[in-house]
């Protein structure tokens, strides 16, 4: 009888669990000193201590490790790093991701993880990392500025972190129950982050970043405020409002899935979905709305005609309510699209694209070097595909596109092979999240932002883990869409 992966990983994950427990105990140890800390910092410290305590008491498996990652990714502002010599590499979520890579490697060496040898997601992730390392080597062959060299070293750790998340998810989750649990936690934590953004918009005195600047943390970048057309743009724990909007929008298909299929506690997912949809316009970002449109369209394609109509009606009602509550904001967002052809921020950046062929001379194969295209030295691209071409060459671009296509393929494969309506819907939701993030990469440097980059590989890893469970099932052509029927029943005929 095969051993439960949670038990097999126990020996590797326990040290990380003990570290989390130490942090929890440390948070309570400072209770006598709470008078020396600002009230917001004290509250944030205790909340994080509670979260870590709950996680320590959970199962010692890949799901718990990735849950820690999600909590730190969304609830600790991304510009924050540990005090010390690590600087930007010392981001808490990034360190857990690097730990995930170590756990995966140790588990594979010790034989604690039994996984298919020819899994397409695993090999694509490894190819993505090899291409990045080859590009790193190419960067070392030319004269680099100090900014380019520092950025190149920093981005290597980012790629290792991405590799750790994807590999631990695809090989370590092991069961449908743990995959579903992780995705449910992802939606709930994402909904909490969206609610924090709403508080930032409603209450000008609410400063989440200042509140979360806990002892032992410092900032690796200036904490800028953003505004557009008279509206303050929210970011919550993200690095920028664009990243906040894209990640928020990409989580909507998963939230829709759980509102439809979760049998107990469905109200939690309705609240998370409402928070995600309400927070998105507050970022005043074109990219977020485009991401939302792609994700929802991809997921709604799996519904019946009646289900699609219900979504459309609820969407129109929601827009009307939002317009009444926040007058003028939707008009501002509409203007961003209607006036895009005259927007100087867009035209200026597209004009810079003419310099790309010259920069690529003699670097078409493996690029100019991973992480070397620094905006302060060159210019802003706001296009991850072009950034990947410049830094990783044609090899890097092909592997980056393949990462999205393989992720989409295994997510859709779950839907095509499974006969369980709930599992088919979850596969479609993951495909929608991956597709929406892939389209968003045309409009900003998605891999340069930790939340969007980590979410992409986490979604691909979860899709790959589900595909492992159904890979031996034959593909089927389903004539109906039970997901839509369930939605019809919930909303009313």
Automatic annotation (TrEMBL):
Keyword Transmembrane helix: yes
Topology of the protein relative to the lipid bilayer: Multi-pass membrane protein
UniProt keywords, alphabetically: Membrane, Transmembrane, Transmembrane helix
Primary localisation category: membrane
Domain (O-antigen ligase-related) ranges: 271-401
Entry-linked InterPro entries: O-antigen_ligase-rel_domated, WaaL-like
Pfam families found in the cross-reference section: Wzy_C
Record bears the keyword Transmembrane: yes
The protein's name in its UniProt record: O-antigen ligase-related domain-containing protein
């Amino acid at each position: 009888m095969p051993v439960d992966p949670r038990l097999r990983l126990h020996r590797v994950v326990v040290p990380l669990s003990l570290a989390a427990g130490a942090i929890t105990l440390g948070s309570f140890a400072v209770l006598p000193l709470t008078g020396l800390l600002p009230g917001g910092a004290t509250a944030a410290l205790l909340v994080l201590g509670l979260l870590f305590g709950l996680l320590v008491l959970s199962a010692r498996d890949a799901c718990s490790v990735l849950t820690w990652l999600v909590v730190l990714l969304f609830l600790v502002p991304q510009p924050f790093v540990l005090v010390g010599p690590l600087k930007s590499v010392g981001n808490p979520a990034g360190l857990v991701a690097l730990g995930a890579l170590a756990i995966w490697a140790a588990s594979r060496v010790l034989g604690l993880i039994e996984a298919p040898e020819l899994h397409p997601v695993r090999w694509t992730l490894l190819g993505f990392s090899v291409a990045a390392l080859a590009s790193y080597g190419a960067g070392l062959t030319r004269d680099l500025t100090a900014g380019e060299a520092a950025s190149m070293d920093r981005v290597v750790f980012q790629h290792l972190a991405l590799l750790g998340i994807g590999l631990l998810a695809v090989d370590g989750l092991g069961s449908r129950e743990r995959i579903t649990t992780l995705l449910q936690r992802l939606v709930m934590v994402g909904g909490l982050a969206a609610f924090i953004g709403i508080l930032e918009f409603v209450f000008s005195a609410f400063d989440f970043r200042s509140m979360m600047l806990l002892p032992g943390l410092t900032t690796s970048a200036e904490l800028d405020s953003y505004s557009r057309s008279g509206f303050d743009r929210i970011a919550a724990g993200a690095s920028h409002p664009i990243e906040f909007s894209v990640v928020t929008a990409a989580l909507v298909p998963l939230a829709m899935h759980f509102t439809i299929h979760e049998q107990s506690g469905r109200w939690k997912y309705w609240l998370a979905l409402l928070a995600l949809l309400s927070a998105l316009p507050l970022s005043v970002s074109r990219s977020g709305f485009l991401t939302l449109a792609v994700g929802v369209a991809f997921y709604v394609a799996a519904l019946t005609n009646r289900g699609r109509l219900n979504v459309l009606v609820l969407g129109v009602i929601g827009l009307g309510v939002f317009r009444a509550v926040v007058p003028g904001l939707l008009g501002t967002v509409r203007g961003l699209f209607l006036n895009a052809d005259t927007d100087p921020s867009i035209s200026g950046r597209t004009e810079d694209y003419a310099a790309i062929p010259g920069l690529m001379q003699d670097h078409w194969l493996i690029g100019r070097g991973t992480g070397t295209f620094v905006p302060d030295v060159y210019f802003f691209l706001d296009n991850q595909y072009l950034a990947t071409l410049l830094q990783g060459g044609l090899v890097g671009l092909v592997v980056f596109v393949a990462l999205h296509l393989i992720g989409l393929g295994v997510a859709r494969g779950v839907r095509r092979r499974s006969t369980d309506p709930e599992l088919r819907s979850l596969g479609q939701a993951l495909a929608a999240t991956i597709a929406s993030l892939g389209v968003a990469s045309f409009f900003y440097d998605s891999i340069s932002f930790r939340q969007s980059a980590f979410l992409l590989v986490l979604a691909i890893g979860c899709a790959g883990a589900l595909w492992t469970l159904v890979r031996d099932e034959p593909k089927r052509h389903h004539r109906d869409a039970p997901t839509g029927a369930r939605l019809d029943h919930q909303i009313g005929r």
